[in-house]
């Protein structure tokens, strides 16, 4: 069998399996879904959370719960499952086993906010997660015959799993957790428990302060230098960092105008529009298909990032790659504003191998990858870096932290 | 307070004249002169703490920047020295000892830096084959040294662009010819015409920037683009103190970019065309006038100083990755 034939067979087997699961009896808490859902999961999540923090399922089972399920013919379900097969490798969660230990209410709340897309954005999700972790740590009691430095991580694991089930982990959350693990294992054994817990909470606060808040301030200054009076700044969707850069540049009495490009279904650009017009920055708002008509007027494109990679690629909200490529074609410099804690040592060449699906009725991956050739510069808190030098960020970081 | 301001004014005044006098030595380039001038500032400074010293250095650098015609390469030198001072381990007991050490290191660096061009020339020799035809742009000391060094061992011939408006290419022509190297001056606009006769291009640099690109005399970018289109290698020679933390996003994102560059002159009320003050039909053109107008059309015209001022002195050549 050729590779293509083998793949076809695999797909067919997977489709029949999924269809079999769909038609079979199932309860929300025990069935793994084809993909994690965004909308309509509040109800099922809440009930699931009561049980033990397991997530709701993908489309086939969701169809069963709703009243309209009987309207879905087998063929229709088959069609949609086949259509989703293209991204089905994104979110096939492992069958959630019984969670060892309870999930802290703070984590449950954050999980709900994630899955409802009430908290979006790499920075916001990381800060929300770390803040919830502080509550977990404060509520933690070291079991007898054990040490905090060894056991706390085991205690945190189910909490982390719960968040991952709500929405796949972002690179920022992953990096923060890695740093937290390091701090926990380095925790002084002789410290009284409350002191150790307070020390960890301080470390978390410092991480947020240094790697996000202060980093953003440095980026505001550095990127602000690239904004001059009369510029027309183009931006896409809503990056918390770009918003800060624009507001700060306006505060510094630079007089420019902004074009916000937005796209469905998230329409996050509306929130940015609100924030900028609140301080009277002249803004134009349009959807992605209208981009070519405004590109000749743009001076610079500023975008944010979910993560930046060792090969110079930028992983960001779906649509960013399109905007960046078009901008480059029109000789508009593409500037990515990104803190160093978003750096991932992985190498990414496409948006395909790892992504997340949003709304399921339309094929809607949440992220895409902008190749390094379309990026002019990346502004981080350690300096302005060309994409070809992205792999040197850890070294640059080490130097600034060392001094 | 008054004493310090006096001292600083004296320093401020000194730094520019010091810098100028250092520059009189032909061998010393602007960043090195800046480093030496700042070293002298450290020597004369009465700062008591590192903070004061760095502040004084920054003020001095600012003065130099404001008064120099080409701030980019000067700034590279200033930033290099100030970063060196800031990162210098200052746990010695006596601050004046520290200052002496800084001065010593600054002067030692400048002395060593004078050997850089020689080192670069030796390294560049590997790229120069016998019978090479080389194109260079304007006048660059490091390229001169390299070409003269190559001439001692190999046969080379050199095309050099005129590099208007300053015409520094002609200086290159004079020096190469005096050394016995066959050399021809090429019009800036004839580079594309000549490119297929050229083995490789060799230019100097004002600064190498963070994006991996090059800042050099205006015309370098054009030559680089033509070379790339013709698959001719383009080499740039740069001493390490020319590396700058600038990151230009475009040609116009350079600190040397003045608002009047490539600006259009303000037009007054439309004036009638001066060549034909009276409609031709009504006045017969005399033979004199006819000759005069043909003379004017074939006569060489030159740009006025005002027109030249609307043009840039340097341009930004992107690295291969950023095209």
Question: What features would you describe in this structure?
Answer:
The complex is a heterodimer of chains A (403) and B (323). Chain A has 14 helices and 11 strands. In chain A, helix 8 runs antiparallel to helix 9 and helix 9 (193-224) packs across helix 10. With 403 residues, chain A is an alpha/beta fold. Among the domains of chain A are: 105-216, Four Helix Bundle (Hemerythrin (Met), subunit A) (Up-down Bundle); 228-397, Translation initiation factor eif-2b, domain 2 (Rossmann fold), CATH 3.40.50.10470. Chain A has helices spanning 3-23, 42-51, 59-65, 74-85, 105-115, 122-139, 148-166, 171-185, 193-224, 240-251, 269-278, 291-294, 320-329, 393-402, and strands at 232-236, 257-262, 283-287, 300-303, 307-309, 314-317, 334-337, 343-344, 367-370, 377-380, 383-385. In chain A, 47% of the residues lie in helices and 11% in strands. Chain B is of the alpha/beta class and 323 residues long. Chain B folds into 2 domains: 15-114, Four Helix Bundle (Hemerythrin (Met), subunit A), CATH 1.20.120; 117-248 and 314-322, Rossmann fold (3-Layer(aba) Sandwich), CATH 3.40.50.10470. Chain B contains 12 helices and 8 strands. In chain B, a hairpin with a 5-residue loop joins strand 5 (207-208) and strand 6 (214-217). In chain B, helix 2 crosses helix 3 (50-67). The longest helix of chain B has 22 residues, at 2-23. The radius of gyration of chain B is 25 Å and the shape is globular. The N and C termini of chain B lie far apart (53 Å). In chain B, 33% of the residues are buried. Residues 1-12 of chain B have low confidence and may be disordered. At the A-B interface, strand 11 of A face loops of B. Chain A: Belongs to the eIF-2B alpha/beta/delta subunits family. Chain A: Keywords: Cytoplasm, Initiation factor, Protein biosynthesis. Chain A: Its main location: cytoplasm.
């Amino acid at each position: 069998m050729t590779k293509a034939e083998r793949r076809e067979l695999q797909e067919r087997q997977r489709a029949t399996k999924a269809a079999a699961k769909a038609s079979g009896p199932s309860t929300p808490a025990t069935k793994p879904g084809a993909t994690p859902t965004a909308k309509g999961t509040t109800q099922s999540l809440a009930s699931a959370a009561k049980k033990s923090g397991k997530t709701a399922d993908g489309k086939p089972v969701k169809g069963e719960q709703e009243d309209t399920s009987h309207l879905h013919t087998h063929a229709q379900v088959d069609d949609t499952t086949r259509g989703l097969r293209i991204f089905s490798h994104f979110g096939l969660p492992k069958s959630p086993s019984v969670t060892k230990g309870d999930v802290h209410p703070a984590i449950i709340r954050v999980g709900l906010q994630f899955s409802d897309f009430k908290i979006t954005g790499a920075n916001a999700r990381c800060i929300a997660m770390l803040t919830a972790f502080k509550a977990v740590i404060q509520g933690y009691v070291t079991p007898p015959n054990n040490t905090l430095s060894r056991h706390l991580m085991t205690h945190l694991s189910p909490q982390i799993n719960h968040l991952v089930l709500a929405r796949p982990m972002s690179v920022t959350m992953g990096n923060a957790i890695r740093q937290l693990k390091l701090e926990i294992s380095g925790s002084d054994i002789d410290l009284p428990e409350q002191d150790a817990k307070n020390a960890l909470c301080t470390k978390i606060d410092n991480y947020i302060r240094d790697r996000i808040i202060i980093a953003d301030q440095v980026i505001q200054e550095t990127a602000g230098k690239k904004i001059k009076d009369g510029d027309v700044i183009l931006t896409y969707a809503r990056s918390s960092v770009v918003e800060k850069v624009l507001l700060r540049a306006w505060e510094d009495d630079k007089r420019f105008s902004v074009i916000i490009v937005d796209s469905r279904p998230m329409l996050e650009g509306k929130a940015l529009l609100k924030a900028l017009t609140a301080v009277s920055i002249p803004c134009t708002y349009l959807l992605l298909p209208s981009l070519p008509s405004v590109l000749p007027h743009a001076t610079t494109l500023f975008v944010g990032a979910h993560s930046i990679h060792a090969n110079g690629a930028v992983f960001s909200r779906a649509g960013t790659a399109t905007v960046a490529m078009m901008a480059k074609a029109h000789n508009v410099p593409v500037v990515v504003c990104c803190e160093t804690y978003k750096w991932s040592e992985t190498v990414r060449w496409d948006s395909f191998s790892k992504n997340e699906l949003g709304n399921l009725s339309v094929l809607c991956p949440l992220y895409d990858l902008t190749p390094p050739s379309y990026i002019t510069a990346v502004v981080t808190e350690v300096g302005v870096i060309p994409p070809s030098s992205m792999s040197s960020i850890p070294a640059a970081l080490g130097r600034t932290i060392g001094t | 307070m008054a004493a310090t301001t006096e001292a600083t004014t004296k320093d401020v005044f000194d730094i520019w004249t010091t810098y100028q006098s250092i520059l009189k030595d032909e061998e010393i380039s602007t960043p090195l002169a800046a480093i030496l001038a700042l070293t002298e500032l450290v020597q004369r400074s009465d700062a008591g703490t590192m903070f004061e010293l760095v502040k004084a250095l920054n003020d001095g650098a600012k003065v130099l920047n404001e008064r120099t015609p080409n701030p980019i390469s000067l700034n590279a030198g200033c930033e290099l020295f100030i970063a060196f001072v800031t990162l210098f381990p200052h746990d010695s007991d006596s601050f004046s000892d520290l200052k002496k050490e800084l001065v010593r290191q600054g002067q030692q660096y400048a002395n060593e830096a004078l050997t850089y061009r020689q080192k670069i020339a030796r390294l560049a020799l590997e790229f120069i084959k016998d019978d090479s035809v080389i194109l260079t742009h304007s006048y660059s000391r490091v390229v001169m040294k390299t070409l003269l060094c190559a001439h001692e061992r190999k046969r080379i011939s050199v095309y050099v662009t005129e590099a208007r408006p300053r015409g520094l290419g002609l200086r290159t022509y004079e020096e190469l010819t005096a050394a016995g190297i066959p050399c021809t001056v090429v019009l800036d606009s004839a580079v594309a015409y000549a490119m297929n006769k050229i083995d490789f291009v060799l230019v100097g640099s004002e600064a190498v920037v963070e994006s991996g690109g090059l800042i050099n005399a205006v015309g370098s970018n054009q030559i680089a683009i033509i070379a790339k289109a013709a698959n001719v290698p383009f080499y740039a020679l740069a001493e390490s103190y020319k590396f700058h933390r600038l990151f230009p996003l475009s040609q116009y994102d350079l600190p040397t970019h003045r608002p009047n560059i490539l600006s259009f002159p303000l037009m007054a009320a439309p004036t009638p065309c001066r060549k034909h003050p009276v409609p031709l039909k009504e006045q017969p053109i005399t033979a004199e006038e006819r000759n005069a107008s043909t003379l004017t059309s074939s006569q060489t015209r030159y740009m006025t100083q005002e027109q030249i001022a609307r043009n840039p002195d340097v341009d930004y050549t992107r690295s291969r990755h950023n095209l």
